[in-house]
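job 3f2a | input accepted
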Amino acid sequence: MVEIAYYFHCASPHTYLGHNRICDVAERHKVSLRYKPVNAADIHDASWTAHAGALPTTQPAAQIAELKRLAALRGLTFHPSPKHRPVNSGLADRVIIGLVESEHDPRYFTGKVLAGAWAQDDAIADQAVLSSYLSQVGLDALPALVDAKTERAGSIRDSNTRDALAAGAVTVPAYVLNGEVFLGQDKIERLEDMLRSRR
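job 3f2a | predicted structure (199 res):
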């Protein structure tokens, strides 16, 4: 089966804006979406290097306005300045890794985390909040949270990060299809064009 490697972390508003779209594209074209959460700090560092300058500590007004426009176009609620800042998705990202390892589909849990962070002002670093999300999507919270705290989950996230950088995925979200990298949620249409052409 054709696979899309999906590099992301849930502390990114861009991941939130693109999540439903990339999931829908994968479903529409019957391809496998491989969830590969990465270390936010490492990918940010690489991104700064690639763009020859550090990102500002606060997003400029023009960027925030663009994010708001994109959210409105996609029918998504979006809070550019979430209540719980900085957004810490470390535990949530490791839960996603645990779900993948136990062969559970992480799509809807991931969606809950992203909406919690960027639309609902939830504290997504809180274990109780994540437990509630897991239960809401029909998953057993206790083993998922236990798996997330293992050394293996951290090792897999480190490996995902190395894979992302090796592939040229220097920002999130990034999607890799047949060795071609699509950087950012605004490239999903191009990725779908490639799927249509089956290049």
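job 3f2a | The chain has a mean pLDDT of 91.
job 3f2a | closed
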